[in-house]
Structure formats: C-alpha cells, structure tokens
Amino acid sequence: MSRFAVFAAVGIVGVLLGGVARAADPQPAQGSSTAMHAPVATPFGTLPDGRTVNLWTLEVPGGWKATISEYGAILTSLHVPAKEAGGAPVDVVLGFDSVEPYAKGHPYFGATCGRVSNRIAKGAFEIDGKAYTLATNNGVNHLHGGNVGFDKHLWKAVPHLAGNTPSLELTTVSPDGEEGYPGKLTAKVVYTLNPAGELIVDMSATTDAATIVNMVHHSYWNLAGQSSGHVGPQQLTVNADTYLPVDDGGIPTGALAKVEGTPFDFCPERKPAGTLAAAIDALPASADGTNPGGVDHNYVLRGWKPDGTFRKAAVLRDPASGRQMEILTDQPGVQVYTGNYLDGTLTGKGGTVYGKHGGLCLETQKYPDSIHHADWPSTRLDPGQTYRHRMIHRFTK
After folding, report:
1. What one-character-per-residue DSSP string does 261-326 give?
2. Cβ contacts of 183 within 8 Å, gap of 6 or more
3. Which of 259, 268, 338, 356 gets the most CB atoms within 10 Å of its CB?
4. Helix runs in the chain, H state only
C-alpha cells in the first residue's frame, strides 16, 4: 500500500482526534534592510474540527526564507537565493499553499514524523517483557507513528531570535497509549535558519515511562525548484558503504548489504557522481504494481558512534543550477526515498502537479524496525533520559 493511500484514508480522522508560488515564478525581491526579527505568524487555514493554524516565517538577509506550519510541525517551503545578482529565490521543498490539503492527507510532505518514524514490523514490539500493539497503517506494518502521528498534531509554537538568527520552537504532548505507545511523551522540534544558509532541525523528547522514539524530518527536496518535475538529473552522494535490504513490506531483513556494484551505490568516491535517474531506472516498478520501484532504503552511515558527533550524511546537487544541499547529522542512518509513490494526483504550491519521482527525501534516523534488532542502535527511551536528533541542511546556492 502506498504512503499516500494510507495517509489519505486517515488524514481527516487524525485531525479530529487531535493530534506560494512555483519555483520558477518570480519571488518577492529581498529588501535592502538588514534588520532582523523573530519569526512572524500569519493565518494558514482551518482544520476540519475548527482549530486555526498559523504559518511561521523565518527569514534572514540575502533571500533565505523558511515557512513552518503549526500543524504537523511541517516545513512548507524553503527559499534559496539565486546565484546571480537580482535573481529570484527558488523554493526547493514540495508542499501546499494552505493547511487544508495537508489535513486531507498527503505523503508526509515536510512533516515531523513520530513517535517512531519509518516502519515497525507487524505493528508490535516488547519492552521489558510487556507486549505493545500499534496501528498497522502500512499494510500489516506500522508507519511513521500510526494513524495519528506527530504529522497530524497541532503543535504549540514559540518564536525566538538570537542575534541575527531566528528560530521556531514547537512542542507537542503524546499521551500514554496514543497509537499504542507506552508512556506520556513530550516532544520538541526547533527549526533554525541562519545567515550562512543553514536550516537546522533539532528534535528531542522525554518520557515518563519506558518507550521507543525515532523522530524524522520528512521534506521532499527538489533543488531545481519544487515545480520543476522529475529529480532524475540531480546527483546524490551518501556517506555509506552499506544499506539495509528490505522485504516486500519495506521491513529490513536484518542484513547489511554492500552498495558497491549495485543501483544503491551513491558513495562519494564514485566518479562521476551517481544520478537519481540511474538508480530509479535500475530499480523499475513490478509488473503487478505492488512495488513502485526506485529507492526507499536506509543507509548505514560511515563511522557513526553514539557520541553526538555530527557527520556528513548526504549531498544532493542540481547540475543545471549548481545548487547543492549537504546534510550533516548525529544519527546512524539516512533513509533515501525517491518519491516512488507520487502519482500526479496531488496539486501543490502554485498549481504544481507532483508526479512520480518529483522529490527526494533524505531522512536521518536510527534504523527502521530497530526495536527488533538488539545489535542495532537502540530506539528505547527511559524516564530521566532525553532523546536528541539534529540535522543540518547546508546550502550552496
């Protein structure tokens, strides 16, 4: 079952339970003022249950601008300034112009996913000998926190300004038993945009009972611009020698496979750099349509240690514009997803129709289904501990 099909079926229910323009179009010119201000809120729409949602704008001189929705703690746009003087900034994130399409159901565009992102086999796990059953919203498996994950919560937002750097702090509380998870979990996401062109996403959580946590930022990137279509010409490097093969349900088999000599090879040493099109073409959809083809796998990052050190995870580059995004993280893995389930049924910002492979997700995280693999980095969180996850998106325009 596709990510979108699952999401559309439960989107409105999730809301009730609580939980811009085309890139190629001209954007407003950056003013000459260098005065800084905290993030500004504007109305973004209304949820089916009547709650109103704000959209927050983080902006720094030079043309850098990010917008974030309180609903789902979603990054709805990120404008990267043009290389040439006087050029229009380009929005490189897929999404919608108002909250209503997000609430109807979408494939996690820009969302904060949790408690546990990615998949958990059979929607079941044990902690200290006690069994827990989760929603199975992806076939027989659990995906991205279930029917009412963090992507459907209405988060509380608090703006900040430190010197010349604006940030937005968003918090939500997941009650004990929500979606089957044990413990009351308090989660936080902080988006920071700095004048160097870095978008920093900090995720953290605390609990009052033993539970599992693996939060993810789930933007769909297209460095040619969100309205530009297929990401095939763009080049990707991933700082990993191995990846996790999966079964027909997207659950890791437990093996670690070498990427060398396979369509999954995005090693930095590869010359020329691997294109997304080459991998997509080498991994075609199945004849019966059950497998959409493309990449949707977790990569094991080189040299990771549980010491909080930031390491380069991936670099995405658009050769036509020269625009580049580097991702650094303190997490052990990154899920590479080539937008395989996008099918042209969603109309996004500025009337853009999002077709198959119209965006690329680079989701830093602990490995999918880690709760069933004792030798993998643990997703367990106990009272008195703080879950932390940072990713830095560093742009070259």
Report:
1. TSTT---TT-SSPPBHHHHHHHSPPPTTSSS--S-EEEEEETT--TT---EEEEEEEETTTTEEEE
2. 176, 207, 208, 209, 210, 211, 383
3. 338
4. 3-17, 99-104, 276-282
Domain range annotation of the chain: 3-29+37-218
**Per-residue pLDDT tens digits for 49-84:** 999 999 999 999 999 999 999 999 999 999 999 988
Verdict on whether the full-model pTM lies above 0.85: yes
Which distant-in-sequence residues (6+ apart) come within 8 Å of 279 by Cβ? 263, 264, 266, 294, 295, 338
**Cα separation of 326 and 110, whole Å?**
17
Number of C-beta neighbours around residue 372 at 10 A? 16
User: What's the token pair of residue 78?
Assistant: 């990120």
User: Which residues have a Cβ under 8 Å from the Cβ of 9 and sit 6 or more positions away?
Assistant: 105
pLDDT of 178-222, one tens digit each? 999 999 999 999 999 999 999 999 999 999 999 999 999 999 999
Say which residue the tokens 């430190």 belong to. Answer: 162
pLDDT, tens only, 146-174: 999 999 999 999 999 999 999 999 999 99
Q: Please give the pLDDT value at position 5.
A: 41
CA atoms of 112 and 150, how far apart (whole Å):
6
Among this protein's residues, is 169 annotated catalytic? Answer: no
- State the sign of the Cα–Cα–Cα–Cα dihedral 229, 108, 218, 200: positive
Q: Summarize pLDDT for 277-327 with one digit per residue, the tens.
A: 999 999 999 998 889 999 999 999 999 999 999 999 999 999 999 999 999
- Catalytic residue, chosen from 218, 230, 297, 389, is 218
Give me the residues paired with residue 333 across strands.
Answer: 300, 365
Report the residue count for the chain: 397
User: 3-29+37-218 sits in which CATH class?
Assistant: mainly beta
Distance CA 56, CA 43 (A): 9
To the query of whether residue 218 is one of the catalytic residues in this protein, the response is yes
- Strands 296-301 and 240-243, bridge-based pairing: antiparallel
